[in-house]
Design brief:
Bound molecules: 3-methylbut-3-enyl trihydrogen diphosphate, magnesium ion
Number of domains: 1
Radius of gyration: 19 Å
Shape: globular
CATH superfamily: Decaprenyl diphosphate synthase-like
CATH topology: Undecaprenyl pyrophosphate synthetase
Number of strands: 6
Structural class: alpha/beta
Distance between the termini: 29 Å
Length: about 240
C-alpha cells in the first residue's frame, strides 16, 4: 500500500453483519458473533499497526437487549471471556477502555471489564474503546447529569461549559472520530457515538464484519484519502471548491 496516505487518528467501526454472515453459511447466529469477535482481535492489531491511535468499536448497543435471551446470553459469555483474551494478546501495547452503561450487564462481564481496565497497558498511546451496552443518546444524557451534579456542587461554572469541557464528561475523553466504518452495507448510524461523529467521514462497505480483513481496511483508507475534509471552511487550493 502507498506510504504517503493520510491515516485517521480515530477510527470508529460499527461491527455489523455477523448474523447475516452466519445465515449465508447455514450456521447459527452465535457462530457469526464468534467469528466476528475473532476478526476483531486480528483486524484491530492491523489497524493500530497502520498508524491509527484510537479505535472505537460498537460491540453491543443498549437496543440490542431487544434480541432473544439466547443471543444476548451468548454475546455476554463471549464478552466475558473475549475481553480477557484480547488483553492477554495485546497486554504490552494497547490500552482498553469501555463506553456504555454498566446496569443490565451481567456480573461476569463487569468483572472482566474491570480486570481488563486495570491490567491493560495504562500509558499506551494506542487505545481501543469498546462500546458495550452503549447508546449515543444515553452517553449524552449521562454527561448532562454529571454536569448538573458538578454545577450544583460548584465544581463547574456553566459559563465555562464548551465543547472541550463537555467532551470530558462523556464516558471517555476521546478525540473526534475521523473515519467511521459500518460493515454489512447498512447505511445508518444506529445511535453510535453521536457526539464524536460530528465531522467524521462515513464509509459503508458491503462486506459483513467477520470478512472485514486487512484488504478491506486498506480500501477504507484509500477512500478516506479521497475525501475533502473542510470542517465548514473552504479549501481555496482545491479545484472542486
Ligand atoms: C453485529 O451483527 C453484532 C451485534 C449487533 C451484536 P448483527 O448481529 O447485527 O448481524 P446482522 O445485522 O443481524 O447480520
Ligand atoms: C448496531 O447494529 C449495533 C452494533 C453493531 C453493536 P444493529 O444490527 O443492532 O443495528 P440495526 O438494528 O440494524 O440498526
Ligand atoms: Mg445488525
Amino acid at each position: 500500500m502507498e506510504d504517503n496516505l493520510k491515516i485517521p487518528n480515530h477510527v470508529g467501526i460499527i461491527l455489523d453483519g455477523n448474523g447475516r454472515w452466519a445465515k449465508q453459511r447455514n450456521l447459527p447466529r452465535s457462530k457469526g458473533h464468534y467469528y466476528g469477535f475473532k476478526n476483531l482481535e486480528k483486524i484491530s492489531k492491523y489497524i493500530f499497526d497502520r498508524g491509527v491511535n484510537v479505535l472505537s468499536v460498537f460491540a453491543f448497543s443498549t437496543e440490542n437487549f431487544k434480541r432473544s435471551k439466547e443471543e444476548v446470553d451468548y454475546l455476554m459469555s463471549l464478552f466475558a471471556k473475549g475481553f480477557k483474551t484480547f488483553n492477554q494478546k495485546y497486554k504490552d501495547k494497547i490500552k482498553i477502555v469501555f463506553s456504555g452503561r454498566r446496569d443490565l450487564l451481567p456480573t461476569d462481564v463487569l468483572k472482566s471489564m474491570d480486570e481488563v481496565s486495570k491490567n491493560c497497558k495504562q500509558d499506551s498511546d494506542k487505545i481501543i474503546n469498546i462500546c458495550i451496552n452503549y447508546g449515543g443518546h444515553s452517553e449524552i444524557i449521562d454527561a448532562v447529569k454529571k454536569i448538573n451534579i458538578d454545577v450544583l456542587n460548584n465544581k463547574l461554572n456553566l459559563d465555562d461549559l464548551d465543547e472541550e469541557v463537555f467532551n470530558h464528561y462523556l464516558y471517555n475523553d476521546l478525540p473526534p472520530i475521523d473515519l467511521m466504518i459500518r460493515t454489512s452495507g447498512e447505511v445508518r448510524i444506529s445511535n453510535f457515538m453521536l457526539w464524536q461523529l460530528s465531522y467524521a467521514e462515513l464509509y459503508f462497505p458491503k462486506v459483513h464484519f467477520p470478512d472485514f480483513d486487512e484488504r478491506e481496511f486498506d480500501k477504507a483508507i484509500i477512500e478516506y484519502n479521497k475525501r475533502d475534509r473542510r470542517f465548514g471552511g473552504i479549501n481555496y487550493g482545491d479545484k472542486n471548491s
